[in-house]
Write a structure and sequence with these properties.
mainly alpha; about 65% helix; about 270 residues; 15 helices
Length: about 270
């Protein structure tokens, strides 16, 4: 069963990615939350080119995805769940929740540690906020994130199915909550009980330092409230808030593919102003 799932994992994830990308992109056209400040075509070409570069890089460096590591852990009895021979749907659900909390902690770490922030700033330097922002990460951050994920999967002994479910959910919710989409206030408030919404996560992309360091969750919204990193709305409101970083505001520095790859090495000493 696990081998069958692994064989079709890439196709399954690509299918979900494509469908969610198209749906959110259409939603952005029908009901946008904010007016974009620069060319959408230019941003999309460069942001999606970075996604393609990252995908190619991971294929070359890591023959096994996180699901493959989970299968190895299962076969060799590595990790807490495998050591205690625990199984069932509750283990899958618990694994997805624990993986999500680990991603929250990793996100906080990439903001707090200077050398990691140099990589993560590529994600925040986007001058607009839409569905492609959710997949815009520096290649070195993607590599480090995958290594961290491998470590967590091995330590817990996460089931293969749980890893695949988590990966699909994370990709889907990242595109959803980075969408430039408008939700009725009551709908947004209700959804925030179970998932990170676009208005909630958009606060995290503000140039304001305290807002930039809030709302770290990508999927489940609970961790920000539990760890007291939650901020309901930006001080200037969703329409007037400024997206990006206050020390890099030129489109040729923030939106160009080559500039994004070079950004961590170009802005070595520049710090985000508090």
């Amino acid at each position: 069963m696990n081998n069958y799932i692994l064989i079709h994992e890439s196709s399954l994830r690509l299918c979900f990615f494509s469908v969610i990308l198209i749906l959110v992109a259409l939603w952005e056209i029908i009901a946008p939350q904010r007016k974009l400040s620069i060319s959408k075509t230019y941003r999309w070409v460069n942001n999606l080119s970075l996604v393609f570069l990252n995908t190619l890089l991971l294929r070359l460096i890591f023959p096994l995805a996180a699901s493959g590591i989970a299968l190895l852990a299962h076969e060799h009895g590595i990790g807490l769940f495998n050591y205690w021979q625990l199984s069932g749907w509750w283990v899958i659900i618990a694994s997805v929740i624990l993986l999500d909390f680990a991603i929250y902690l990793q996100h906080v770490l990439f903001h707090k540690v200077k050398i990691l922030w140099k990589l993560h700033q590529v994600h925040h330097a986007d001058l607009d906020y839409d569905v492609t922002t959710g997949a815009r990460f520096h290649p070195l951050e993607i590599v480090l994130s995958l290594l961290i994920k491998f470590t967590i999967v091995l330590a817990l002994g996460v089931p293969v199915v749980a890893v695949i479910i988590f990966e699909i959910l994370l990709n889907a919710t990242a595109m959803f909550n980075h969408g430039n989409i408008r939700l009725p206030r009551r709908v947004d408030e209700f959804l925030r009980l179970v998932v990170v919404t676009p208005d909630m996560h958009r606060v995290h992309h503000s140039v304001v330092w305290t807002e930039l360091n809030s709302n770290f969750g990508f999927n489940l919204p609970w961790w920000d409230r539990l760890c007291k990193t939650y901020q309901a709305q930006p001080k200037l409101g969703q329409q007037k808030m400024i997206i990006g970083l206050n020390y890099v505001r030129e489109a040729n520095e923030t939106q160009n593919l080559l500039a994004m790859v070079k950004m961590p090495f170009k802005h070595l000493e520049r710090r985000h102003k508090r």
